[in-house]
């Protein structure tokens, strides 16, 4: 009888430990507040160089000039393609919107490391068209 109880307790411990091990990456992945300063919204004007509509996060790349006139290569982490598609922004639509060579003003929360990287919040194009973050990181409520 005692061995059945010991086995049951051991089995329960193994199941709980297994669950914790499997679920740990889900908690570790979403560190937006750790990687980005969510109190420091920056706005940078430049020209789009590339856009990547790939998992786990879409990426926008653009070049801007600093105060000395030097080119700075910026990037913005955006939401996942799946979330964008559910919000009505297909791959085709996003690639048409984020065209290399287009002038853009990007707002986002800057990297805590001080690098030219932001978590995306909003883009305003030369024609006045805007694209706002779709849920998740960078969305200003």
Distance between the termini: 58 Å
The number of distinct structural domains comes to: 2
Helix residue percentage? 25-40%
Number of strands: 6
Kindly name the structural category: alpha+beta
Order of helices and strands: HHEEEHHEEE
Number of helices: 4
What proportion strand?
Answer: 35-45%
CATH class of the largest domain, named Mainly Beta
Model regions low in confidence, pLDDT < 50 over at least 5 residues: 16-28, 137-141
| Strands ordered across the widest β-sheet | 1-2-3-5-4
Shape field: extended
Give the biggest sheet: 5 strands, mixed, barrel
Q: Which topology of the largest domain does CATH recognise? A: OB fold (Dihydrolipoamide Acetyltransferase, E2P)
Q: Which architecture of the largest domain per CATH? A: Beta Barrel
Integer average pLDDT: 82
Rg over CA atoms, rounded to whole Å, is: 21 Å
């Amino acid at each position: 009888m005692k061995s059945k109880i010991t086995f049951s307790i051991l089995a329960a411990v193994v199941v709980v430990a297994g669950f914790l091990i499997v679920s740990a990456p889900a908690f570790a992945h979403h560190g937006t507040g750790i990687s980005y300063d969510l109190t420091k919204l920056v706005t940078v004007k430049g020209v789009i160089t590339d856009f990547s509509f790939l998992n786990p996060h879409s990426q926008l790349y653009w070049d801007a000039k600093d105060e000395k006139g030097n080119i700075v290569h910026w990037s913005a982490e955006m939401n996942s393609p799946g979330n964008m598609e559910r919000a009505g922004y297909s791959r085709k639509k996003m690639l048409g919107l984020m065209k290399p060579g287009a002038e853009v003003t990007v707002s986002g929360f800057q990297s805590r490391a001080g690098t030219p990287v932001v978590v995306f919040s909003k883009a305003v194009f030369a024609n006045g068209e805007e694209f706002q973050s779709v849920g998740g990181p960078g969305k200003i409520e």
